[in-house]
């Protein structure tokens, strides 16, 4: 476990973002992310997990400046993150889809060199040499720099995307489900690559995923999101082995059991109902319609994150009642 006595390198405070249902101007507004906060420490990997649509990717896009939050702040070394060139260099993103995130009209050389050109980091022979170094760092032969994205496999394309992110010499990588579109065998290779690159370049990483096994292998701490809210955060081993929030418990059982529905039925903990409509959430806890532990207070107000254990937090009224 890393030492968290120092100030965080990167921080989000109360980030919120709303959209209109269906993308229509007349659609009802809903909170894709509501009041999300996180801290990332130097050399740490923070995992963010949750079902599709829980707000993970929207949060990631706000962290790197691709979405403007409705409220809240993003801080780098304690200072508000300004979207100038220096700040953009410090925080880089690795995207989910290696097939859509690379420009098919550009060679690998020009794709990876784009941050070098934008930030004026290298030109001419130095530019070519730096691209070769980055390709080597991600396990690709520098000789492939003249080729185009369609000539590579999905795993190789994701390595190119990682090399492009590293070209800016960042302190932080925000990885938005970087292995979910890859075969299982290739996923392990990319995860191991990120671990090696973190040690080599001193990176801090935010790693977004829905696969708990990948998060457990990769991350020091884990944050769990549901319906745009942070419902639990803590040391990864603790969150995985002794989850405090009923939703985290559900995710863990689903990851451990080949037939999670049968396992939940056997334990009498099957989540009730369906996920609520994000544009029409009930008053109170957003997990109430599925929670096997729901009681009267859950219908009255949303619980705040409450400190539990060693540096952990969870948002559940049952913790208040203990």
From TrEMBL:
The keyword DNA damage does not apply. Keywords: ATP-binding, Nucleotide-binding, Transport. GO terms for biological process: peptide transport; transmembrane transport. The keyword Transport applies. SUPFAM superfamilies: P-loop containing nucleoside triphosphate hydrolases. InterPro entries: AAA+_ATPase, ABC_transp_ATP-bind, ABC_transporter-like_ATP-bd, ABC_transporter-like_CS, Oligopep_ABC_C, P-loop_NTPase. It is a peripheral membrane protein. It is found in: Cell inner membrane. This is Oligopeptide/dipeptide ABC transporter, ATPase subunit. Belongs to the ABC transporter superfamily. Residues 10-252 form the ABC transporter domain. CDD domains: ABC_NikE_OppD_transporters. GO terms for molecular function: ATP binding; ATP hydrolysis activity.
């Amino acid at each position: 476990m890393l030492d968290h006595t120092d100030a965080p390198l990167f921080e989000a405070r109360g980030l919120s973002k709303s959209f209109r249902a269906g993308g229509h101007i007349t659609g009802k507004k809903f909170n894709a992310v509501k009041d999300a906060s996180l801290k990332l420490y130097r050399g740490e990997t923070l995992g963010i997990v949750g079902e599709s649509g829980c707000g993970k990717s929207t949060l990631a896009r706000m962290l790197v400046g691709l979405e403007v939050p409705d409220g809240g702040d993003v801080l780098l070394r304690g200072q508000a993150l300004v979207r100038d060139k220096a700040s953009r260099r410090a925080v880089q993103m690795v995207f989910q889809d290696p097939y859509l995130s690379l420009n098919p009209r550009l060679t690998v050389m020009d794709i990876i060199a784009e941050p070098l050109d934008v930030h004026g980091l290298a030109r001419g022979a130095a530019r070519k040499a730096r691209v070769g170094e980055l390709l080597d760092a991600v396990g690709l032969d520098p000789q492939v720099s003249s080729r185009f994205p369609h000539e590579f496999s999905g795993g190789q394309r994701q390595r190119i995307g990682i090399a492009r992110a590293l070209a800016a010499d960042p302190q932080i990588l925000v990885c938005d489900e970087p292995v979910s579109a890859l075969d299982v065998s290739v996923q392990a290779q990319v995860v191991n690559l990120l671990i090696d690159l973190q040690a080599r370049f001193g990176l801090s990483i935010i790693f977004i995923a829905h696969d708990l096994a990948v998060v457990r292998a990769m991350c020091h701490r884990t944050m769990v999101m549901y319906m745009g809210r942070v419902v639990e955060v803590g040391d990864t081993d603790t969150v995985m082995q002794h989850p405090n929030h009923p939703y985290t418990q559900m995710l863990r059982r689903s990851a451990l059991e080949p037939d999670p529905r049968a396992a939940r039925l056997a334990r009498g903990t099957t989540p009730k109902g369906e996920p609520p409509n994000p544009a029409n959430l009930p008053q109170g806890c957003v997990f109430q319609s599925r929670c096997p532990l729901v009681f009267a207070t859950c219908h009255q107000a949303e619980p705040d994150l409450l400190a539990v254990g060693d540096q952990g937090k969870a948002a559940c009224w049952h913790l208040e009642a203990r």
